[in-house]
Amino acid sequence: YQRRVHGYPKVTDWHKKLETATGAVLATEIKNNSCLLAKWTVKAILAGADVMKLGYVARTSPLKPDHSILQVQQYNPLQFARQNLALNPRNMWAITKHVIDYLTKLPEGKYVLLKDPNKQILHLYEVPADQEEGSDEEQPNQEEEEEEAQD
User: Fold this and answer.
1) Minimal CA–CA distance to 16: which of 33, 1, 31?
2) How many other C-beta atoms lie within 10 A of the C-beta of residue 5?
3) 22-47, pLDDT tens digit by residue?
């Protein structure tokens, strides 16, 4: 159960919502955690899993770290990807191939590939050869700067 404790933000009462509107709860979780669900779904697809299970859990008490499983749903990963996440496995491989093809054309060296958290864009940074590991100073790749300037 979840009780409201003074100073804690309002929490969703999973018990009631899951019993009456399971689809709405899933839609909210997809909206709020789409990247995480996509990552789990892609891992299930790559592993060749026929079934992927999603579990809904809640704290037994707001002041304790103990949890209880409220509900478990199972999905076919390919169908879940297409229907709920709008992921197309062929498109995922096409994007991966494009990134790999681009990276193999670059000169040998160390690079850091980061996804912008707020946009659907990847940033590629070249790590200078004389830079020590663990240092936070990174220089953008010249090609990436040119691409961003064109957008």
Assistant:
1) 1
2) 11
3) 888 899 889 888 889 999 999 999 99
